[in-house]
Amino acid sequence: MPTGRGRNKKNGKGKARRLDQRHKQQGATAAAAEQSDEAEASGEDALVHDSVEPELALKFYKRALDLCPQDPALLDEAADLLLQLGAADDAKALLSRSIEVAPDASAGKWLYMAQLHEGEEALKLYNRGLTLLEAALAQPAAAAAAAAATSTLTSIPELRQQLSAACCAVAELYMTDLCFAPDAEAACAAALDRALRHDAGGPEAHQAMAHLRLSQGRAADAVPFAKEAARRVGAALAALEGDVMGGGEGGPGPDYGFRVSAAKVLLECADADASCCEDALAVLAGLMQEDDEDVETWFLMGAAFFKQDPPDLELARAHLERAAEMLEKIREHMRKERRSGNRGGGSAQFVFPYEGQVALVREQLALVAEAEADPDIARGGEGEGSEGEGDSDGPDGMDTDE
């Protein structure tokens, strides 16, 4: 079941996305506190600092680990910080130690480790984590709540949501690394059915199901899932904003990359239901408010305005031309980097994505120009082909994360 949608792997950093979205750092555990007041103080300081200064927090956790090197909670939290900093190999070493010391203490370590592997090995690790999560949920309500409270989760709904998200990750494996497995399509569908059964209100399961239906060529069946995922994204962001406005700390809502993916899915669904363009534009408008220097967002907004029925050619061209200008600035920056002799690190990594992105923008601009030349479409009429011409790989093909 091959599909063009790949996993988000930003040089090891993208793999660190937590499956439990309401993530809470635990600091030093009771065992560490019993062994040393210094370890406890270190953990408390890390709890204060890790959300804004992961480098500083990591120093505190390392001090605590020097005193309590076999504490699984400290190992897990230090690994999480290393993942945030892009140190995947170091994180893997700590997770391996945690698994060796306390393999059944929490599911999170197995899910983290799965994100650092690929193919069959990742599947085995995910399944081990899923087994632990289901065992916790199978306990009587009081025991399950206690199990959740002693992990990075605080409630049974959060435990269910982590299980649902892990099932989505398994489904994604079958749409990418394991797409040529004989039972890939059936296994993917089974994982998503399981994700929906345990869904506790997050958008992941519905978006993953929309991905599957699109890969099967069933765009009409993908529409309700894509729309529900977008609705949940909007609701989560609204709740987060309301919490902050009310004086609360808020929490990690759907991340930027997930919302970009949601917009792409909606644009793919637009050929089956034109109203998906409006949903996509709503998602993209929120992204634009957060970062108006993201070339991919400008490109996707241009594509969305073009795919509207009737298309808004003026806005489509304006956004696509802005994307082209931004790409030209990126190219100039790359040239300066090369002339200055800085050939390592950033520049070389972006040569191929740049060329691909320029090609997509030019392709979409050519479609806009063709539509502008058609008097029916230019007037906003029912010109034939206006919807179909927007059906290209452009909206789903541009990826600035490469």
Please describe what this structure looks like.
It is a single chain. By secondary structure, the protein is mainly α. It folds into three domains: 1-200, Serine Threonine Protein Phosphatase 5, Tetratricopeptide repeat (Alpha Horseshoe), CATH 1.25.40; 201-245 and 252-291, no CATH class; 293-402. The chain is 68% helix and 0% strand. The protein has 20 helices and no strands. α10 (184-197) runs antiparallel to α11 (204-215), α12 (219-245) runs antiparallel to α13 and α13 (256-269) packs parallel to α15 (295-307). The longest helix is centred in the middle third of the chain and has 27 residues, at 219-245. 41% of the residues are buried. Residues 2-50, 246-250, 344-350 and 381-394 have low confidence and may be disordered.
How is the topology of this model organized?
Layout: H1 30-35, H2 37-49, H3 54-67, H4 72-84, H5 88-101, H6 108-115, H7 119-138, H8 141-149, H9 156-175, H10 184-197, H11 204-215, H12 219-245, H13 256-269, H14 276-290, H15 295-307, H16 313-339, H17 346-349, H18 351-372, H19 375-378, H20 394-397
Coiled coil: 313-340
Protein name: Assembly chaperone of rpl4
Keywords: Coiled coil
CATH class category name of the largest domain: Mainly Alpha
Instruction: Output the number of helix runs.
Output: 20
Query: What is the count of distinct domains?
Result: 3
Question: What is the straight-line distance between the termini?
Answer: 23 Å
Structural class: mainly alpha
What is the makeup of the main sheet?
Answer: none
Estimated radius of gyration: 23 Å
Coiled coil: 313-340
Protein name: Assembly chaperone of rpl4
Region (Disordered): 1-48, 372-402
Organism: Tribonema minus
